[in-house]
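Model: You mentioned two targets. I'll fold them one after the other.
Researcher: Yes, keep them separate.
Model: Target one:
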Amino acid sequence: MNKLLSANFARLKKDTALKLCIIFMFVMGVLLPFMNYRTMTAYDIPIYIDGSFFDYISFMAIIFPAFCSLFIGTEYNDGTIRNKLIIGHKRMDIYLSNLAACIAAGAAMCIAYLIPYLAAGIPLMGFFNIDHISTIWILLGCSLMLIIALASIFTLVSMLNQNKALSAVICILGLFVLLIAGIMINNQLSMPEYYDEYAYIDPDTKELVTEPSMANPFYIQGTQRKIYEFLNDFLPGSQIVRLSSMDVPYPEILSMYSGIIAIAATSLGIFFFRKEDIK
């Protein structure tokens, strides 16, 4: 196992795709504070460093599936996995070493954003505008669990699909489906139960008309709302949306669900990889 991990981390150091991902995250980490500062000075409105701090999750999630599928797919294309089996490495060790490499790469991408963001953001916008700085650390831990869950899903797909291009398409499209589902669920749950009372001037009579508050017919309630709330906590796409906006009242629940996803995906992956016919 140690030899497999060493070989994978040696590959990561030379991997061109990872370098490009890190450069992208670094650029975004530098660019966003300056964009926020420009908006803050142009419109004279306060913008705190908190606002875009967790945007790294959205950026990382977009490029992460492509990296995982390419990194693992290259092992199939080059015959590396077959060679590892021939010299006696266990299938579970091969699977877990690739998963560990993907998790490490995802964490490296996030760090590549956070360091320049803090270095540029603190001098321009000041420190965090939050009551308890421990909240930032808790959400960072929650985002790490999400990275592990995503890496587990992408490793599952890539290890069970020996076609690098196809696994990349499945991972990327799957992530976008999860993101769209997360945005839609979040929007549905954000709808108010009642529309507030409002007034307007009738263009025909020129009189002030007051409309009373009324129930929102699209408001979700009952069992359906409980299902939506569960999906909003459970689905990785919803977690990405919520962590990016720091809308996480119970981060321990999201971390627990991420752990469940990681364990389930890894268990399924190892089970089926043991039966995979390696070409």
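Model: Target two:
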Amino acid sequence: MPANSVSVSDILRASICPMQLYLAKSSPADFSEPLRYSVAKQISYHLGDELDAAEIREELKLTIPDCGEEAFRVLDEMLAACRKVTWRQALTYDMQVDSGKYNIHGRVDRVFDDSFSIIKGGKAPTHGVYASDRLQAVCYSICLEEMYGKEFYGRIEYLGSGTIRSVVLSPSDKRVFLTALKEVEKVRRGEVPRPIRGEKCKRCRFAEKCRPLEKPHTLLERLKKK
């Protein structure tokens, strides 16, 4: 892994809101995984093989020692959805990847000889994939293509609905990646970024810390603040 490389998770966070990344850097790290993601990850190791509910239950008890009935309910729900789909068996799992050119690194859930898959615990959108999932696919494609000298295409596997969506990357996707990467670099230099206001603010754990830090960036905004 390149020295001081940028994690894919930081790039995704910066694309949602650079201020969120800025505040996360000075806050205690949150190591807890969302329950649906933990369940989906455990199922992912069995995709392309028999989806044995009893076996996966026992694995969940080991990986999530305090898991309860809610975890098993989610497991049964995902297994029902996933059994309706034919899955490829991966060559390797949780593969560490990086790019020296862009100084980024991440971990890919499932890797094949010509492609990769990103596991999600939620349900697929009506069409396509979510924007953050597409950006994640861009990051992994860049890393894998640099590492192996050939193209890799990505898929997002939404285990909540048993849906597989292929990601066809465009030049605009790579521009989004470059913009997010620049935002990460600004935060690393100590610059206070401008928040991106929207619906996601309601679910952001930094919402209360964010507002006092916000500064008007234009003359008109400064005049309005007075």
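Researcher: Noted. Anything on target two?
Model: Residues 68 and 197 are 36 Å apart (CA to CA).
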